[in-house]
């Protein structure tokens, strides 16, 4: 421990703490822009400057470690004036058309300009003179150079959190910019569309491509039947946009809000999450049989989950010789889309061409996924529009809905029922846990004891986690699995996916089954979730997901009555002909 003094307050702090962290401990807020809890320190925006008594130069609080006896002033005249100048300089290079900016109201630069009352313009407004590019080619991400303050959070996100490096810094001095390889469009580089850059951008330089108006148009058209599905993680994030603290579950209110917005049917992606488990679990068992029993060298293990579209793009871009490891299952979003315009349309006597299928996702890559040319198994575009959790919040506000006063409502039927296993898809490790609950019962014919339903080794926030399940006394047909230790691994954040993929590539992977989610924390930390994000917020959302699971009357996918009905009345059996056509896919090298 060392002793310091901040603004006259004596403080004991751990050695190695930065001034920013020490100030936080003392309840003193130092403004930041380039700093983010998820990222390595850059110290390049200088907004967090503080005065150290005895030193002439100001220091960046985020990048300066505390030293014994340090006397720090965070609010002296020198600090205030410098900070104001820094903000003014940043604004002089920023196209500050705030009222027409998509980030209006949730922009960190705007908030600083407001807090520091920047009302004069002492510097030449360079943003008006410079040429700039707005990259609008991606169905997921818009990148507007004129709003960029070059804090490089996006670059550090893409490199440090995701290990993708689609964004980098080019040029020097006043020509310096954040760009891509050879300044190509985002769609032409290794971007996975994960949207983590959006979640970490302090301004409107990176935002989601929004489809709010298109969805309003569809809802307003009396000829159309507009169906909406909501992803598992939306229900534990949406509340933050509506003034609730992180971790508030708003499932029932969300459903009621969607009904009031005018959707004709409010259904649940968790239903197809359960369906995914049946298809993917069966596929895993088939692969185990082919490799362990039939010794078929053409079948690849470990099998990797295939529901996170950022992860899919990552493996297609960077490990295209490992695509056979991916499960052929489409994601729950796309399974849902394919069923809405076939099974749902038939059951409800609706013409598929009159159905508009909308999904609410915590994810920007889902927009890209829905736009993939192969996602037309129903004969139509399976999912027409994908909105993020943030876009849904905008619609709710536009509609004048007082979210806090809403009663709770239930999902509509046919594709609205789910188990707790479907819910936990929203957290890293959830797909694995859900799959293991089902695979164990399919193989042994015995029920997973209630106290063992929570498979804790695959839970948590470690980048990579492992579980080993020993199979004993399997039922008839699965004898070859007797005594087999099913080795599983879970990774979240693409930087961790790399470790598992390098093992596969080298032929040293010890696993049978791996789950990879592109975003930190899984979907609940997705690129379409409320901003801000950080480890504490994601931990609260994670707790909420598991609490939702524990409250569900059914907690195993294969017990979902609506899924069983779907097989009985429409699909036949898992991995059957219809399933293969509607629910499975292949990948692009
Ligand atoms: Fe996810 Fe999903 S769990 S990817 O994170 O599998 O986006 O929430 O909707 O599709 O169900 C996202 C979340 C989903 C899908 C599901 C999967």
Automatic annotation (TrEMBL):
SMART domains: Fe_hyd_SSU (SM00902), NADH-G_4Fe-4S_3 (SM00929). One of its GO terms (cellular component) is membrane. SUPFAM superfamilies: 2Fe-2S ferredoxin-like, 4Fe-4S ferredoxins, Fe-only hydrogenase. Residues 1-78 form the 2Fe-2S ferredoxin-type domain. Keywords: 2Fe-2S, 4Fe-4S, Iron, Iron-sulfur, Membrane, Metal-binding, NAD, Repeat, Translocase. Residues 78-117 form the 4Fe-4S His(Cys)3-ligated-type domain. CDD domains: fer2. Residues 139-158, 182-211 form the 4Fe-4S ferredoxin-type domain. InterPro entries: 2Fe-2S_ferredoxin-like_sf, 2Fe-2S_ferredoxin-type, 4Fe4S_Fe-S-bd, 4Fe4S_Fe_S_CS, Cytosolic_Fe-S_CAF, Fe_hydrogenase, Fe_hydrogenase_lsu_C, Fe_hydrogenase_ssu. GO terms for biological process: ATP synthesis coupled electron transport. One of its GO terms (molecular function) is 2 iron, 2 sulfur cluster binding. PROSITE patterns: 2FE2S_FER_2, 4FE4S_FER_1, 4FE4S_FER_2, 4FE4S_HC3, COMPLEX1_75K_1. Its main location: membrane. Its cofactor is [4Fe-4S] cluster; [2Fe-2S] cluster. It is found in: Membrane. Belongs to the complex I 75 kDa subunit family. This is NAD(P)-dependent iron-only hydrogenase catalytic subunit. It comes from Mangrovibacterium marinum.
